[in-house]
Amino acid sequence: MAFRQNPADPIPFFQSIWIPVLGLPRHEVKALYSQIYEWAEENRVKWPKIFAMATFSKGFIAFHGEMYEEALRYFNEAEKLFEQENDEDGVAICQSSYGGTYRTLGNLDLALKYLTSAFHRLHQTHAYPIFENVSSYALSSLYLELKNYERAIPSFQQCVNISVGYGNKNFEMLSYGSLGEAFHGCHQEEQALRYFDQALALGELAGNNNFYSRVLSDVGTFYLDQKNYEQAIRFHEQALQLREDLHLVGGAITNLQQLSRIYSLQGNPEAAIGALRRAMKLAEEIQVKPKLFQLHRMLSEIYEQQGQTELSYRHFKLFHQLSEEVNREDGAEKLKRSEMIFEAEQTKKENAIIKAQKVQIEKANIALQKTIDELTISKINRRAKTITTIIAVILFILEDALQHFAVAPHTHDSFLIALAANLALAFSIKPIEQMVEQYLLQRFVKIRKEYRVNTG
Questions:
Q1: Residue 239 sits in which domain range?
Q2: Helices (H) and strands (E) in the chain, counts
Q3: Nearest Cα to 393, choosing from 405, 383, 382, 401?
Q4: How many structural domains are present in the chain?
Q5: Upper half-sphere CA count for residue 440 (Cβ side, 13 Å)
Q6: Are 19 and 130 in contact (CB under 8 A)?
Q7: Is residue 168 a contact partner of residue 136, using CB atoms and an 8 Å limit?
Q8: What is the pLDDT of residues 375-419, one digit of tens each?
Q9: What is the Cβ-side half-sphere exposure of residue 36, based on CA atoms within 13 angstroms?
Q10: What is the pTM of this model?
Q11: Cα separation of 160 and 143, whole Å?
Q12: Are residues 380 and 319 in the same domain?
């Protein structure tokens, strides 16, 4: 793997594979990231930032595999690891992913909170271009979902500029397509069509058929609303083909539902029933009950229009049965998701409390160490003064003895010599004190270092 050869800077490696690998089958993506994570875990002490990135990537892949509880767990782990490395940009990409996950789980308030915070940071530092793009697009899509077109339109236009700046044609294409949706929502159809055309023009260049199929579907729905059925059929069939090739079953079912509606509006019930039968087969393969009950309802309505009462009743009965099951399961799922979000937020709060406590402890330790150092230095100063006094007394005694026995018998100027000697001794006391103090300080530092090594 590329990161084994140059692990010093993991960002380019991870950013180069985050988005492209999503076009691979899920089991291959999971296997790839599992290998990366295992290697990073083995080398977490040597390269802690790579381990943080690998942990985040596990959450990123879990999210795209619709394993949201696992994704939140990994994002939380990664956030703590990035905090330990003082990497605020790493924390921001975790917040971006919290936002995306909460949006999927239906909590738009928390999604807005985290996406806004993440985008503000990432757009300021440009540390993670992919997630600057992701958070920008996700935030814009949230405005669109809330039908806040006044916020959505400039937000998507900003996302286009960011995508162009980084040469990211995938998000440029998606942003143009979403601008088409936003202007369509505002009933500005000419503007909408202009942006849809720009998105389609980028489709083949972008290279991501998953994203391109989404744009094709949106354009098909736009033409359906405009009652241009031929164009609507053309774009939904193109999207359907791409999604079938990529085994994107849910998306393929949506295209078949739209095609069935178009055929019904054209007065072609046989084609409409044929499309729904194809969709039913796909839905039964993956057992998606929400799709199944929608399909049964649509079939019931078409058979009723055809006067085939028995078939209409049969599908209506299945629709009613499945819709009740979905409502029960949906209630349980909503409760589970609420609990999941509560637990994730509770964990984040606990982490914040622990972090705040650590900061307080560190501050207290610093203050305590400062006090200890001041007391130690004061003690060293007193000891240095005591030692200096003893040395001065000894020197004065030695100087006096030297004057009395060696100098006085041989000269008449002994008084002047003694005065000069005493002055020299007096002026040397301060330098001697400084030398003693410096020695004691160096000895103290050495002892403390040895203690830290032995206890560390």
A1: 208-330
A2: 18, 0
A3: 401
A4: 2
A5: 19
A6: yes
A7: no
A8: 677 777 777 677 777 776 676 666 666 555 554 555 555 556 666
A9: 26
A10: 0.69
A11: 16
A12: no
